[in-house]
Predict the structure.
Amino acid sequence: MPKLNALVAGSTGYIGVQLIKLLVKHKYINIKYLCGNSSVGKKISNYDKLLTNKKLPKIIKFSKNLLRDIDVIFTALPNGEAQDISKHLTKNITLIDLAADFRLEKGSEYLKWYKQKHRATHLIKKSLYSLPEINGKELSKYQIISCPGCYPTSILLPLIPLLKSKLIKVRDIIIDSKSGYSGAGRGVHKKYKDKNLYESLSAYGVGFHRHNSEIDQMLKKYTKKKISFSFTPHLTPMFRGILSTIYIDLESRASQLKVIKKLKDFYKKDNFVKILKANTLISTNDVIGTNKCLISVCKSKYNNKIIILSAIDNLIKGGAGQAIQNLNIKFNFPLKTALQ
């Protein structure tokens, strides 16, 4: 099978570097171009020493002329920039976006949550918000692949199967998520310089974090009832990983064991989602460096409630790994390629 030529735009951010570290192991991908702005002319190994002995191109500025011999573009850029690149796509190029540019199905929703006008609304219909285990089978029809945010990945994977099976109530779901500071990007140290980043826990985006929009959009696809949830993210003094704790009311016919069985049945053919034994306590350390999502269903002191724990590596399953998962499905590569 011939290799695909790939361009990575936004190659020096935490997600971009992680993506390159996975792509160099992908036997069906040739990294043709690495693009950046302030990093032009530098080697990518300046940003991660593990890439020192890899044969990789120097970082250059993006130009539409680079796309002449490109099969797939990965964009790990600030919100809005993938929209500009998308306007230069020819029919034989697939765009895989790791930012939020094509996550929302309406330009008006993007304006509401991201406070900027969507610059490629005509291409939204050509894109798919792809959570691989949920709707990855639809990928073949789309040229633009939008990868979910890291928090929503940890939240939607346990909730969607339970909503589909009507085992849980759709009102007053409480989601408490904690992330390593890499989730805020390479500029996190400047952005949170007054937060004592390495020794304190901070809540942020309370009530109105942008990821509310895609969580809401996806959950509504799987229930006809009016859904309500509260989502609060936290920044923790660790580099990577997400642990989401989700508090749910059960429907009268449901139980903890039925919920576990439903999740196990739903994900029995999936390589990267693992449902653990009842009441298993999990940590981010269990998933660091992997493309796995671990899910544990725990008892509450109330019979009609359960507590779900969900852990992922935000840079892999919540970012670069999920992008490669989508790539592998789109191009019919073995699913575990570069993700072992």
About this structure: The two ends are 20 Å apart (CA to CA). The chain is about 25% helix and 20% strand. The first strand starts at residue 4 and ends at 9. The chain has a mean pLDDT of 95.
